[in-house]
Amino acid sequence: xxxxxxxxxxxxxxxxxxxxxxxxxMAVFAESGFHGGTIRDIAERxxxxxxxxxxxxxxxxxxxxxxxxxxxETALKLLGPQTPSGADMLYAFLQLSDFNERMPGLVxxxxxxxxxxxxxxxxxHAYFLRRYANIRSLIERAIVEGQxxxxxRSDVQPGPAARSLIALWDGLQIQWLYEDGSFDMAGxxxxxxxxxxxxxxx
Amino acid sequence: xxxxxxxxxxxxxxxxxxxxxxxxxMAVFAESGFHGGTIRDIAERxxxxxxxxxxxxxxxxxxxxxxxxxxxETALKLLGPQTPSGADMLYAFLQLSDFNERMPGLVxxxxxxxxxxxxxxxxxHAYFLRRYANIRSLIERAIVEGQxxxxxRSDVQPGPAARSLIALWDGLQIQWLYEDGSFDMAGxxxxxxxxxxxxxxx
DNA sequence: GCGAAAACCTAGCGGTCATTCGAAATTGAA
DNA sequence: TTCAATTTCGAATGACCGCTAGGTTTTCGC
Lengths: 202, 202
Fold this sequence. Notes:
The structure is a homodimer. Chain A is mainly alpha-helical.
């Protein structure tokens, strides 16, 4: 009586299991995209059945959403509790770039998914639309703050500069993947950011 | 006797038919990528059967190869018989960018395919690897020529600058697709190229 | 130790995919 | 007009896809 119908919550290792699944999802989607990646491949990598995997994530699309959300949480943790502002924020991209070079799977995930998600009916479309808008906002604000601090040149137009920084970032990641990570992405990024500054940083 | 076994060559309209197929392939691959695009979709757009289509192109991979080759032929025709050099070559990218803005399908094709082709086993991988290498070579040479002509600043490093221009190009195209072509790609490109010049062009 | 929720499995469903095969239709040189 | 090469088709194949259903195993609060 007292026990029947009582929810007991998830197992102690459930969260760990889901992380395993998300890691495998990231790898499979980085290699083959959402369209080319399969639930079967993901399940095999985790060492569980498809049905078992679908107990944790209700559908392939739910997997995609979870892996993108997971990536954002990871990035937030990296930024730390206090987000820098102004010129500091801009140069923080170099640290993020260095971090990315240690995570080729993550770089691949975004390169592949951001491309195929340009299609309006792709399940990742809304995420990337929102993400580009948010990042551009963030960088524009950082540029404006930098101009107020006297660090960023006053002739820089925040909107176009933000867009170009993001474009450079995305484009470098693609070339980096084709060249098996054999060049340093931070260099060109720093050159661009330096060019926005009244006085470049060493 | 005289007629049996005599090859007669293809029909008069065969070449036109293949172009129709390639146009449909471009549209389908731009929307869904190689993985998500299907021979069924392509055949439906052309208004023929799958088997009929596969008479002209032996496989889905052959379709991809043909559509990429076709795109390169189109770009070559656009450049015209005489390839510009030095600073002229760099500014020619702005014309190419304007041309691209009239061909969203082509932009989409490259955005999606260049992403998913980062995977080494993707049938488009070798093509994009070669293409990036060729384009970087081309731009590096143009920068060096520009420096010799006194148009390009002598402190510009050709390799990194070439890489950044390509990255900017690719990254802008992705944002352009997400924003339904609502901004001008040439602006940021011109700003970057201007910055390489001793004296920017108006 | 019990008992039920949670997690997982096998098997299968309904559908799609790329491709093949044999036949029919079309084309165009003779 | 003939006739065979070329093009096209309908149907099918074998494999794979995302997902469901019902059952089994594991876990853990009591």
